[in-house]
Write a structure and sequence with these properties.
globular, Rossmann fold, alpha/beta, 288 residues
């Protein structure tokens, strides 16, 4: 049994079997649709959400978990007998989750000063955050120390990369998450953009006029980062677009040495901002 508990939030978009297998603790985001409030992946599932979202006339609002939500999970972990917690969160430049978790840590440590709680800003999103959680959980289950688990996560922050595309950026725009890709809004109908994240902020890395071409550009960018001989771990990520991301997977694995791959669908709280039809990858080079 691991001596270090790993905590994250629903927007990491981890597959459920991975969560169970690695004993990962997670906290749901909130989705507000008018007066109705959904708890991400608790009271709304991916399939139902994306079916509704495709024809929605108004974009829902999302909210990160509160300090009390994180404090509750830390308290539950402490009650189970564990004394060391590593809590990994979406970029603090796009959400308040990291700050809420820090407040929760301070609240719990006042009552239980014997605990060790490290809250980490992944400076990323989706399965880039998810990969950090997975690798941390694997290290913890293998018996790594609290300090070693933290070091593993922090080593991944600068090398984990997200690339994604969609037919429209309207969801990012309406949700206020478009960041430095704002300039693409003027030509939404004519391009398929490549969206990534740099230092915790959404950026544009290029564009093309077809899905096929933009997927090829994505593979070019991955290869430029790791070289054709480099080994990578990769998650193929989508929002109600499994067939599209399978096309991207085929291109990636024809050219790159993929040592591990996962298929993951974005959680509804993240899909609010990308919209259905999004397809992309979250990957990092395997350095050892």
């Amino acid at each position: 049994m691991s001596k270090v508990a790993i905590v994250t939030d629903s927007v990491a978009s981890l597959p459920e079997d991975i969560i169970r297998e690695l004993d990962i603790h997670w906290v749901p985001y909130y989705i507000h649709r008018g007066k109705e409030v959904w708890r991400d992946l608790v009271s709304i599932d991916r399939t139902s959400f994306y079916q509704w979202m495709a024809n929605a006339s108004e974009i829902p609002k999302t909210a990160n978990p509160s300090p009390a939500d994180y404090a509750n999970i830390y308290q539950e972990i402490a009650a189970s007998g564990l004394r060391e917690i590593v809590s990994i969160h979406i970029t603090s430049k796009g959400s308040g989750a990291f700050q809420a978790a820090c407040i929760a840590r301070d609240m719990i440590l006042e009552r239980l000063p014997e605990l060790k709680i490290e809250v980490i800003d992944s400076l990323n999103v989706s399965m880039c955050q998810g990969w950090m959680v997975i690798e941390a959980a694997r290290a913890a289950l293998a018996g790594a120390s609290f300090e070693a688990v933290i070091a593993k996560v922090k080593s991944m922050i600068p090398i984990s990369q997200m690339l994604q595309t969609a037919d429209t950026l309207k969801y990012l725009y309406l949700g206020g998450r478009i960041g430095k890709a704002q300039h693409l809004m003027g030509s939404l109908l004519n391009i398929k953009p490549i969206i990534s994240m740099r230092e915790g902020v959404i950026v544009s890395l290029g564009q093309a006029r077809s899905r096929r071409r933009v997927y090829q550009l994505m593979v070019d960018k991955i290869e430029a980062t790791v070289s054709s001989k480099g080994r990578i771990k990769i998650a193929y990520v989508h929002a109600a677009a499994r067939e599209e991301v399978e096309k991207l997977k085929e291109l990636v694995e024809a050219r790159l040495d993929v040592v591990e791959s996962l298929m993951a669908e974005l959680s509804p709280a993240l899909g609010v901002h990308t919209g259905p039809g999004t397809a992309g990858v979250c990957y990092f080079p395997v350095l050892d």
